[in-house]
């Protein structure tokens, strides 16, 4: 007990001294104000233990809370230790500390800090629901960032669209491409789970994409591009995602970062009863007051085995509502909210990923500098949603 006193005394002198040195260096570096803000965000998130008692950190934390509408990370002494999956102190967040309104969000920062080439990947399928053909060229461009062969499965709703898509992919060199015409029902969710149910036994890894346009809300402008940048923004970034699946056999889903304007809408809404009934069929118990997280926009990388509880429900197209322009309250919206639950119920974990650009609380960057960091620095957020159920 007495041996810890000198350590505390050293820390009480060393940390303020380090903070002052960093502050002087920060003021002296010849960078633009935006670049300096990025440096400040990284330092305050990554090295919070050093800066947390400073006035600058308190002002920054208050600013981030106002900007994002999210609860700030707790002050010192409020259960602030963040631990890795092996229980060691680190920058990787676990469950929310007492009094924290929103869980910290670990973000796998892309690209990795080391080269993930040459890429080692299992058989890969990309499932693209292409309802809006005006976005076809955009998706073709993003798909070029996948640095390995893959099979492309495209769904659309009319024979005319099918023919136009097939023509557009003549000469496609990334791998085989197949286009299926499916009933316009269940948005992009029914094609995932019903229209392409046969692919999961053949392809261990799948990427979900769809031609999302949220025309009903101006604040959602740029959402699709944001999601695609997280999932397919560069060859280095995609290589990092594939490396994560290779190094972490327990990883079931890599989802994009949460788009800022969407964050206030990460709730059950009018979908809870449908979600609960669906969850019960998979052996999952949920309540309204349980924490909720899901890949809003339903574009993400997934290990096929992580969807098994949902696939085993053997849903049919007729289970989904007829298309009437609904913005909430359908089976498709309910399933979207249960993707992470399904992943956990199958025995896998999940994480969000993207570049560190404009990252802000509650996001916490997870930087992978070497292959061993997938063990040593991986966040202990495994099965976070279902763990709450078991408490």
**Could you name the ranges where pLDDT drops below 50 across 5 or more consecutive residues?**
63-101
Query: Numbering strands along the chain, what is their spatial order in the largest sheet?
Result: 4-3-2-5-7-6-8-1-9
Count of discrete structural domains: 2
| Estimated helix fraction | 25-40%
- Counting DSSP E segments of at least 2 residues, the number of strands comes to 9
Q: β content, as a range?
A: 5-15%
Q: What is the rounded distance between the termini? A: 32 Å
The helix/strand class is alpha/beta
The best one-word shape is globular
Assign the CATH architecture of the largest domain: Alpha-Beta Complex
CATH superfamily descriptor of the largest domain = Spore Coat Polysaccharide Biosynthesis Protein SpsA, Chain A
Biggest sheet details: 9 strands, mixed
Please state the oligomeric state of the protein chains shown: single chain
The CATH topology assignment of the largest domain is Spore Coat Polysaccharide Biosynthesis Protein SpsA, Chain A
Element pattern in H and E: HHHHEEHEHEHEHHEHEHHHEEHH
Radius of gyration, CA atoms, in whole angstroms: 22 Å
CATH class of the largest domain: Alpha Beta
Mean pLDDT: 81
Please tag this protein with its features.
391 residues; alpha/beta; Spore Coat Polysaccharide Biosynthesis Protein SpsA, Chain A; 2 domains
How would you describe this structure to a colleague?
The structure is a single chain. By secondary structure, the protein is of the alpha/beta class. Helix content is 37%, strand content 12%. It has 15 helices and nine strands. The chain has a nine-stranded mixed beta sheet with strand order 4-3-2-5-7-6-8-1-9, with helices on both faces.
